[in-house]
Design goal:
- There is one protein chain.
- By secondary structure, this protein is an alpha/beta fold.
- It has a domain at 320-527.
- Residues 1-21 form the signal peptide.
């Protein structure tokens, strides 16, 4: 492998300052990259446009939660503010590769702590960790304030922690290569962004976290899994990771406990106290950062368990390459009139696009303000993008958006044709043998407005739609700088999660048939070419069995809860999928379905719980109830030892 040079503290600061400026907001990242089909080109266009504006004005871009620099080198804390509380990021060093003792590269994994409800009089109060998942951990801080972490710590006198996932936010290696090239998001440098490595990050945190810098009573020994129960929470991908962690490293015959690698030499060199007691007779070699060796005549005995329990919300424990179920779930659960209108509209649009050998394609695209898009697949992709608003809903209007319902209102309204106007275009009643329903023009006006609002580039006096929405130019996908954070989750998708979202092969559709699997997976082939040290074995065909081997729909363990929204477009990939066997809920293995809910609706809360909707108060009360029973069970077992 390429050798790396560790940057000095000043180098770390300069690298982070230069490489990770955020010009898109968290809300835009979620909407464009994580709700429905990822709109990479539009995300890049907005990012680049705002960067250019900032450079011209020489002003600092509007702060995102993850905007500020985490100055590890000088020890100056970055204070994050959300609501009424401030949270300071802390650093837990991890090896870049847990499984290669010769790879000496480490990185700072950020975490944030709330001791607001910690009961100092209880030396065995629980530790709750929220897995940050596929975004900056800074974007999860509200859950320390009013969300699930605040709820559980308040109920049990516990400690709340938000843990940032490797590679996301600022939990990145701070290294450069002998050539002077920095660490990037290239195929080679992304090869350590895997679920396996991230799960080991969590396991090592449990084994080695020391919070004595916050309170002298919270040293490594008093925080150990032998002294306190550790309980995980995650939503979506992080929900699946929570389930995998409890299944693999839990007390219920954890399947991965006997596969724990020895402590990494690079980490022990940084902090010899990170060496677990079970390795106390292990021989340590040279204590330099690079050449330390760990050897032992006999492998140490595996721990009995690391994590006591977990709440897996909207946990996508089932991976699959083609995932048309995302839009089919919307088709089933969204307002009926809207979806039936959408089906008829999409069917007519597809027919128009093929009519007379494609003669009408540019005309139809012109109705939507997209006549300059070169490929029909990109046109269909823009039309499908409006559906991501279904996942963007939340019971708290300050967090969610009702844009999906606004779209449905527009689509199903019935104005007279005389009042319709699309940029002065003449609107036909028929095209050849096809009658054009009014809904197509309603749909077109909505998309026109969306295009004008979202596309910041102008060409010939109108939005440069090819630059904003065209996806067939491979050059933009070759950008690998750390600011290209769209590459992170897409890498995981391309490697072993899948979830490409083509149109279904049969039946009624609410997205164009031109969105086939070849198109929806093509970014994997252009964005991640073979590197010098690693290549995707089969780009566009991820190794989903690596995920499903951990339990798939049937995954279960003691003290592992599954929470889902009934109308979540990701529920078909969870243990509460209609494809899975129905489960019976218990305090030990809770299973909860939230009505009229989508993606991890239980994660956020309000300062005054009485103001939450009844169904949300209920699930929060249920979570408190079963977690309290888990904590009590842990205390009883501890007394028996």
């Amino acid at each position: 492998m390429r050798t790396c040079t560790l940057l000095p503290a000043a180098g770390i600061l300069s690298l982070l300052t230069a490489s990770t400026a955020a010009y898109t907001t968290h809300e835009e990242d979620v909407r464009l990259l994580h709700s429905g089909r990822p709109q990479v080109k539009l995300w890049q266009t907005i990012q680049n446009h705002r960067q250019q504006e900032q450079e011209l004005s020489s002003t600092t871009p509007e702060d995102n939660l993850d905007q500020k620099v985490f100055n590890v080198g000088k020890g100056q804390p970055e204070w994050q503010e959300h609501g009424h509380l401030h949270y300071e990021p802390h650093c837990f060093y991890q090896p870049l590769d847990h499984y290669d003792p010769k790879n000496n590269v480490t990185f700072c994994q950020r975490y944030w702590v709330s001791l607001r409800h910690w009961n100092k009089d209880q030396n065995d109060s629980p530790v709750y960790v929220l897995d940050g998942g596929e975004t900056s951990g800074a974007n999860r801080l509200p859950f320390l304030d009013t969300g699930i972490l605040d709820i559980l710590t308040n109920a049990t006198g516990g400690i709340g922690i938000v843990l940032e996932h490797r590679y996301y936010g600022k939990s990145l290696p701070n290294v450069s290569y002998p050539s002077g090239e920095p660490f990037t998001l290239s195929t080679d440098d992304l090869r350590f962004l895997t679920s396996e490595q991230a799960l080991m990050d969590s396991a090592r945190l449990i084994q080695g976290l020391d919070l004595s810098h916050l309170d002298k009573h919270l040293d490594r020994d008093s925080l150990s899994n032998e002294a306190r129960p550790w309980i995980w929470y995650g939503g979506s991908y992080a929900g699946a990771m929570t389930a995998f962690l409890v299944k693999g490293w839990g007390y219920d015959n954890g399947t991965m406990l006997d596969q724990m690698p020895p402590p990494h030499p690079a980490i022990v060199a940084l902090d010899p106290h990170r060496l677990p007691r079970r390795y106390e007779n292990v021989t340590l070699g040279d204590h330099s950062r690079i050449s330390i060796n760990i050897s032992s005549a006999e492998p140490p005995v595996a721990p009995k368990g690391l994590v006591w329990g977990g709440i897996a919300s909207s946990a996508v424990t089932h991976a699959q390459t083609s995932y048309p179920e995302y839009f089919q779930a919307i088709q089933e659960w969204a307002p009926d009139e809207c979806m039936r209108t959408m089906e008829d509209t999409i069917e007519t649009i597809d027919q128009l696009l093929e009519l007379q050998g494609g003669k009408w394609r540019r005309t139809v695209q012109g109705w939507f303000g997209l006549e300059d898009l070169e490929h029909v697949e990109d046109f269909g992709d823009v039309l499908a993008s409006v559906l991501g608003g279904w996942q963007g809903r939340n019971w708290d209007p300050k967090i969610g958006s009702d844009e999906f319902y606004r779209f449905c209102d527009v689509l199903t309204s019935q104005p007279s044709r005389e009042t319709l106007s699309l940029g002065g275009l003449q609107l036909p009643l028929r095209v050849g043998p096809l009658k054009i329903p009014v809904a197509i023009y309603q749909y077109a006006q909505y998309v026109r407005d969306m295009v004008e609002e979202s596309c910041p580039l102008v060409k010939d006096g109108k939005p440069d739609v090819e630059q904003c929405f065209g996806s067939f130019d491979p050059e933009p996908y070759k950008q690998t700088g750390l600011e290209q954070k769209w590459r992170l989750w897409l890498w995981q998708v391309c490697e072993n999660w899948g979830y490409f979202m083509p149109a279904p092969l049969e039946g009624k559709r609410i997205i164009s048939k031109f969105l086939d699997l070849e198109f929806t997976s093509k970014t994997c082939r252009v964005a991640f070419p073979p590197g010098e040290h690693f290549k995707l074995p089969n780009p566009g065909k991820p190794d989903v069995e690596r995920v499903n081997a951990r339990g798939d729909f049937a995954i279960e363990s003691s003290r592992l809860a599954f929470i889902d929204g009934d109308s979540d477009p990701w529920r078909p990939a969870t243990p509460q999928s209609d494809y899975a066997l129905k489960r019976k809920s218990s305090l030990n293995k809770p299973v909860i379905m939230i009505k009229d809910a989508v993606h991890h609706f239980d994660e956020n809360g309000l300062k005054d719980p009485s103001e939450e909707p009844k169904r949300i108060r209920k699930v929060h009360q249920q979570e408190v109830e079963f977690v309290q029973s888990w904590v009590q069970e842990w205390k009883q077992k501890k007394q028996q030892l």
